[in-house]
Amino acid sequence: MKEKKKRKVLIGLIIGGVVGAAAISVLLIVFGYYFLYGGPAQITNDAKLYEETMHKYRSEVVGKVRTGFVSFPESIPESAFMNGSEPEFYFYYRDTWDDPTCEVLLKCKYSDADYSSELDRLKDGIELKGADRKIETSLEYEESKRFSYPVYKAIDCDDYAYEYAMDLGNNEIAYIYTSFKDDFKSLKKIPEDYLPTDFESCRSNYLSGKDGYSVYIVEKTSDHVSYEYGDRFD
């Protein structure tokens, strides 16, 4: 009897150990998944929530996105909602390890007046505010075969990111932001013809030491990169 009891206790301990080890393994896998990939993506696609969404990810939590969204409008004019269809808005955010993975698309068709005003804004100088200083700068204009349409760039292949406004003509402007999106297939909403032809080579260029462009970088040395974000959407 004593031998049977010992055997049962031993079997119970073995089973308990196996179950415990399996549970720990599952917990480690879940923890590793959330650590590396940040869990499920957070997605917003309602243009009426544009300002609220941009404020949430730009201002409320430091490091949510690594941009000031200066190429994007602070708000969507009423005329963009009065052309038979609402503006197209898509905001994808996933808190992946080290830096977030993000995809943002805003496409608006404006009235003549609002379209002209928005182009003026994109051409004008902008003020960026850092912890101890302010700088006056402007978006970089590019009209080349790299892009299907003229663009006003805030970020061009810098730190695995792009940000720019694209003048589609006919009173339409598309605003693009991507971060840690490596190829066309990884994008959910941004059309391929809204991206530069060398989009997929951004990561390899950055890893090989080729500097991209960022309006937010006001100091770049071998030791650090200093980002100066505008205090928009506050």
Short description:
28% of the residues lie in helices and 28% in strands. With 234 residues, it is α+β, with helices and mostly antiparallel strands. The protein is globular, with a radius of gyration of 24 Å.
Describe the structure.
28% of the residues lie in helices and 28% in strands. Strands 1, 2, 3, 6, 7, 8, 9 and 10 form an 8-stranded antiparallel β-sheet that branches. The protein contains 4 helices and 12 strands; from the N terminus they run αβαββαββββββαβββ. The protein is globular and about 90 Å long. With 234 residues, the chain is an alpha+beta fold. It has helices at residues 2-37, 50-60, 112-123, 202-207, and strands at 42-44, 88-94, 101-109, 125-129, 134-138, 140-142, 151-158, 161-169, 172-179, 213-214, 217-220, 225-227.
Shape: globular
Distance between the ends: 75 Å
Strand content: 25-35%
Q: How large is the count of helical segments?
A: 4
Q: Specify the structural class.
A: alpha+beta
Number of strands: 12
Radius of gyration: 24 Å
Order of helices and strands: HEHEEHEEEEEEHEEE
Helical content (DSSP H or I, runs of 4+):
25-40%
How can the largest sheet be summarized?
Answer: 8 strands, antiparallel
Give average pLDDT, whole number: 79
Uncertain spans: 25-36, 223-227
